[in-house]
Please model this.
Amino acid sequence: MWKGSVVRNRQKALNPRVVLVQQLAFLILLIGAWQFVSGRLIPPFYISNPLDIAGVIWKWLADGSIWVHVRSTIVTLFMGYLVGAALGIGLGLALGLSPRTERIVAPFIAALYGLPKVALLPLFVIFFGIGLVSKVALVASVVIFLLFYATLAGVRDIDRDMIDGLRLMGASGEEITRKVRMPAILPWLYTGLRTSLGYALTTTVVSEALSSNRGLGFLIEYSASQFHSAGVFAAVVVLLVLSSAIMVPLGMLERRSKPTRLSH
Amino acid sequence: MTDSSRLWLQRAILLVAILAAWEACARLVSDRWISSPVAIAERLAQWMAGDLWYHMMITGTEIGAGLAIGIPLGVLTGMLLGRSKRMAAVFRPFIVLMNSLPIVALTPLLIMWFGLGMQPKIVLVAFVSFLLMFFNSFSGARAVDEELMDTLALMGASAKERFVKVVVPSCLTWTIAGLKNALPYALIAAVIGEMMLSRNGLGHLITRSAQQFDMTGIYTALFVLMVVGGLINEGTTQLENRLLRWRHLETRGR
Amino acid sequence: MSHLQLIRPEPATGATPARRRKISLDKVAVDFTTRGKTFRAVDDVTIEVPEMQFLALVGPSGCGKSTVLNMVAGLLAPSEGSVTYDGAPVEAANTRVGYMTQKDTLLPWRSVADNIGIAFELRCRKANAAERRERVAEMIDLVGLKGFERHFPAELSGGMRKRAALARMLIYEPETLLLDEPFAALDAQLRILMQQELLRLVERRQMTVILVTHDLEEAVLMADRVMVFTSGPGRIRTERDIPFERPRNAMELRFRPEFSAIHEELWSELKDEFAASVERERRAQ
Ligand SMILES: Nc1ncnc2c1ncn2[C@@H]1O[C@H](COP(=O)(O)OP(=O)(O)OP(=O)(O)O)[C@@H](O)[C@H]1O
Ligand SMILES: [Mg+2]
Model:
């Protein structure tokens, strides 16, 4: 009858206000300690300090120079993501619907999947030159596999018996797709799309850091190569804002619609 | 039996066909961009007689040392923080933020701090694996079945005993899921670190070849990385199957 | 605890002399708040269970029987009134009771044998490996799970899981048993066997028991006293002593005319509550 815990109403519930105050206190303490330690215990060369970092961010915002990089990162991210997702889902559907072929090529795909994709970047740079295309190709190469496997799992999740049953009841192919196939695949697709976005962002930033002249990844790498630690941290903060703006809403979505499976 | 041997035969034929087509293309058209399977095999043999093992050792050490630091720390802090209601509530937003940040973006910073050697890669691998394991065991500790905790409490189990007998094993599923991410990610992180700035390691093999426009070298290094990555994936899957037998039974039973 | 209390009195036969009060609920009420609405699950319940008594609680689904057990186990605090055990208020998990919850709470990553033996791994009940193995084998035999020692809970049927949970609780012989539908998932034959086994054990060890069941027959067969709950909020509608001798033979008891008489008498009370609960649920929809 009662779900979850055998009741624990003896424990006092947390006061959300107190929690908020504690969170703020932690944040202030962290930033304060950083400011204090820098230059006293640790040379600012290594960890810069919050005031300098804020100053750099302010300068970037004031002269607008940051937007080139933010825009570049966003463009690379979404182009790579879309290309990779389209290819991955297409491949997943194609092979999912022809299981015999899928069984033959499975080990080849698994082998390619095991390769750390960033290692392909030099190859892509030689093929496509330094610029948007090689970065997009790299991001897509990461996303393809994730969505391929997600789609495949979704196709496998389709309940054959249920389809047979509906056929017997005289359902049309289109009805079966709508009532059985789509509902089986969609949760997997959703999970695949969500997790691969994180990987796509990581890959974008890394490809920018490795070979590019714009983007937040480049900004981090460039500042580091100039030993300009305030610049490094400032770029990381901007990246953090961008990444949480993209990822956090997705995380919240996830909590509302429960995943059907743990993981694949 | 016959079915599976036929499958493997088909795969072998496919592989041979791909390699033959590749080789043919290289011979008949040009091997400037695509090198050729024979050249790659030759190069691999050459490397294996030469410094391949040295570079592998470097990457392996970076991964091993990083994981040895990151995994236990991540698992433990995740479980402890996850079991404390207040700590979990207070730190949740910070955890969510960290979770969304691409951690490898910090590689340049680590290189700036620690320089050229293995150190920045070890720290990077440790950092990445710490976070991945932390997120997983934190969620695992939050998802512990409270009724199991109560059952043990009624038997007279102390808080420590409940932690060891209920929280730790029920986090294991999550920990394994974390490992499945962390191990391949450790290789990725080490390779990224090596590609960014290094004089050795498997990532360095790639950048070295690329700088010389040595296509055969690039493909050979990619092949090596593919094998290493495949072995790591296979290893984690085996580990998972061994440790989580009860879990597989459970999901199959449904 | 004084030493005197460790020496159990003679087993009771027939009429019970005044015994020490083991469990007592005094004017207890429980409110739950779900989705912002507060409702009363249990209201004005007073129960006194003397030492070594076997009490059965029956009532329609959702009337608060499990809630009562949770309070005795110390997992739930009453909103009003008080719960005491051995004269002391119950304020934390009550380690003197063995509680078999309605949902079996076997640890899914442990085999049957490792689940059953877990109590002996705890510091407070530590036993060496040989002793543990012997006791586990004994219990596995008792609940008829021989041959399934190495199985995981997921590989067992619902009834087998219940029996494993029962064995895990009985193995450390708690002085008081709280049993929430222990035999619900068993088939009729196995159920009778298990009832008989449990009776034997309880009588031999002179345990105090609260048994929650949907099955009135089971209640009358096993208990010294039966309480009928009203459909929510749970109150006590009637209680009745069951005068059969101890040790009991549950197998033949059920064919006696006195048994049928008592069963019928309680059934007429319970029937109304079932009807009321069905009606209430229909209205709620
Ligand atoms: N933790 C809880 N939170 C909210 N409501 C609860 C909780 N536990 C029980 N209830 C409610 O209290 C009432 C009594 O629940 P309880 O589990 O005690 O019933 P029960 O008599 O054991 O029923 P059953 O015979 O079906 O097991 C029910 O209406 C139930 O929904
Ligand atoms: Mg109940």
